[in-house]
Automatic annotation (TrEMBL):
Lineage: Archaea, Methanobacteriati, Methanobacteriota, Stenosarchaea group, Halobacteria
Protein name (record): 2-D-hydroxyacid dehydrogenase
Keyword Oxidoreductase: yes
SUPFAM superfamilies: Formate/glycerate dehydrogenase catalytic domain-like, NAD(P)-binding Rossmann-fold domains
Domain called D-isomer specific 2-hydroxyacid dehydrogenase catalytic: residue spans: 42-307
Entry GO MF terms: NAD binding; oxidoreductase activity, acting on the CH-OH group of donors, NAD or NADP as acceptor
Family according to the record: Belongs to the D-isomer specific 2-hydroxyacid dehydrogenase family.
Domain spans labelled D-isomer specific 2-hydroxyacid dehydrogenase NAD-binding: 100-276
Entry keyword set: NAD, Oxidoreductase
Keyword Oxidoreductase annotated: yes
Cited InterPro entries: D-isomer_2_OHA_DH_cat_dom, D-isomer_DH_NAD-bd, Dhydh_Halo, NAD(P)-bd_dom_sf
Listed Gene3D superfamilies: NAD(P)-binding Rossmann-like Domain
Length: 308
């Protein structure tokens, strides 16, 4: 593979200005340009993108600025010999801090006070409602970069941290690691269940009616993975029936979350617009992976974070 022209697809503007990434890569040998239509894409050898376009199927290499790659047609890319890489490894800090923020918002009632401020209300919660995170428990489902970012911060503030992954190999900062088949045991009896797993054929609908029933009535579901990991109708039913206390959700089956969704109306549900990984340094992390891969192409043809 030889990359003479690298396109930065305009879709990355959903996260950061494409020009910032162009500037960060301006010293490289390939010409780096912003592209926004099929004609401009066809003049490139590779592209860095947020969204997928049919025009990419004529390129040699696609890099996704997200860790998730479920929006890309993997079988077709493989058939055509197109390399797909992703940005896994750069979101641990931002997502970990976001999840810590969710848990602090619940324990210290920060969302409640924010809503009261909008209404100019001075109202204190019942004495037994606020709690501290120290000594509380969280089960992190998925212990890759995102999951470890969550686990590290939860462990640092004194929480009991358990996790779920395909193997039971120990993870630093995680008190116990459960195998995937022991999911129900892992999520029962903990205050927070945080989802940080990729969306694939094994994880789609991972959290459904049975899993929500296995959780404690005072527990909260946190989803910073993908909307499809959770059966959203089952979640709404569990919240309405009091099977779990609440949720903090950054991702949804349909995005933007429709105005008519019941999830907007629950007092104990926090909705954020798929921004858990957002940080002003985001483009720098992407630039680092792209730079490494361009160097590897020139050296031995291997790729960091290769998906296909």
């Amino acid at each position: 593979m030889h990359v003479e022209r690298l396109g930065i697809h305009d879709s990355v503007s959903a996260v950061f200005p494409p020009e910032r990434l162009c500037e960060a890569l301006a010293d490289l040998h390939p010409e780096v340009v912003v592209v926004d239509d099929a004609a401009a894409i066809s003049a490139c050898d590779a592209v860095v993108t947020f969204a997928h376009e049919e025009a990419f199927l004529d390129l040699e290499w696609i890099h996704s600025i997200q860790a998730g790659y479920d929006r890309f047609p993997l079988p077709e890319l493989e058939d055509r010999g197109i390399v797909l890489t992703n940005s896994t490894g750069i979101h641990g800090d931002s997502v970990g801090e976001t999840v810590l923020g969710y848990m602090l918002g619940v324990s210290r009632r920060l969302q409640q006070y924010a809503r009261q401020q909008e209404r100019r209300e001075w109202d204190k919660p019942d004495w037994d409602v606020p709690f501290t995170l120290a000594g509380e428990s969280v089960c992190v489902v998925g212990l890759g970069t995102l999951g470890r970012g969550i686990a590290d911060r939860a462990d640092a503030i004194g929480m009991t941290v358990t996790g779920v992954r395909r193997s039971e190999e120990p993870v630093e900062g995680v008190d116990r690691v459960y195998a995937s088949e022991d999911l129900h045991e892992a999520i029962s009896g903990v205050r927070f269940v945080a989802l940080a797993t990729p969306l694939n054929e094994h994880t789609r609908g991972l959290i459904g009616e049975a899993e929500l029933a296995a959780m404690d009535e005072e527990s909260y579901l946190i989803n910073v993975a993908r909307g499809g990991v959770v059966d959203q109708d089952a979640l709404v039913a569990a919240l309405e029936d009091g099977e779990i206390r609440g949720a903090a959700l950054d991702v949804f089956e349909t995005e933007p979350l429709p105005e008519e969704s019941p999830l907007w109306g629950f007092e104990e549900v926090t909705v954020t617009p798929h921004v858990a990984a957002f940080t002003r340094e985001y483009y720098e992390g992407v630039a680092g992976i792209v730079r490494t891969n361009l160097e590897r192409i020139a050296a031995d043809g291997t790729f960091e974070n290769r998906v296909v």
